[in-house]
Amino acid sequence: MIGADSEEKSATGKIVAAVAVLVVLVIAAATAYAFFVEPERIEVTRHTLSVGVNKPMKIAHITDLHMRAFGTRERLLVNLVTTEKPDLIVITGDTISEGSLELAAPLLRQLAAPLGIWAVRGDWEHLNHVNDEKAFYESVGAHFLDNQGLLVRDDLWLAGLDDPFSGHADMTKALAGAPAAAYKVVLFHAPDYFSEVAGLFDLGLAGHTHGGQVRLPAYGPLWLPEQGRRYVQGWFSENRSHLYVSRGIGTINHAARFLCPPELAIIELRPN
């Protein structure tokens, strides 16, 4: 009996050790994937809305680039946008993580759209005390909107706000002069602002959350930023307004993404 017990304990010990090794290997593989694979795999998501426009429009929505260099991910983004041939490109803030907006110049100079490239400020631009955004974006063939709006086409008003979280968003100013019949698209960074302004426009585009960046099965995001906890990713509707929150391109705090790949959102507006 003693010998049998000893053999049973030995077998159990080997099983426990094997399970422990397997768990370590799974964790190591998941970590490697999160840091080196998923952050470089941009997912193109496509969405179609039947709305009050006179003819179709394709919008490429880019957000949270958090650029540090023009690397593999940024080259892929340029290729994806170029392939999509959007009518309009919009960038909803956090173009950089630190330093100067010039870090983003190599990417932005390679983007083009018939109705232009339009950008707004995020909280990281405020954090880095970025100045003269208008001049920078003009230098790379883009446009900067700071609580401003305009007709980019006779049936579509495009407005861009200062970051609602770290700055001073002014929706009234951004919509001033907008024709009543025009379809109104508003760009802003922090999505939780939507609860305050839903009903004043048709479509809002935002970022800021990174979709949580690291998400665990049956749990969800490990972390979310302030003003990005109510509307985390995807579509939301309130008071006849729609909001799309993109997971964005870059990363913050750490370079990992897990079950939350970078996203280039392509939104097609079609006449209803």
Q: Which characteristics define this entry?
A:
alpha/beta, Purple Acid Phosphatase, chain A, domain 2, 2 domains, 6-stranded mixed beta sheet
Describe, in short, the structure shown.
The chain contains seven helices and 14 strands. The chain is an alpha/beta fold. It has two domains: 1-36; 43-271, Purple Acid Phosphatase, chain A, domain 2 (4-Layer Sandwich), CATH 3.60.21.
What's the structural blueprint in terms of helices and strands?
Elements: H1 2-36, E1 43-51, E2 57-62, H2 72-84, E3 88-92, H3 105-108, E4 117-120, H4 123-127, H5 133-139, E5 143-144, E6 148-153, E7 156-160, H6 171-175, E8 183-187, H7 194-197, E9 203-206, E10 215-216, E11 220-221, E12 234-238, E13 241-245, E14 263-271
Parallel strand pairs: 1-14, 2-3, 3-4, 4-5, 7-8, 8-9, 9-13
Antiparallel strand pairs: 2-14, 6-7, 10-11, 12-13
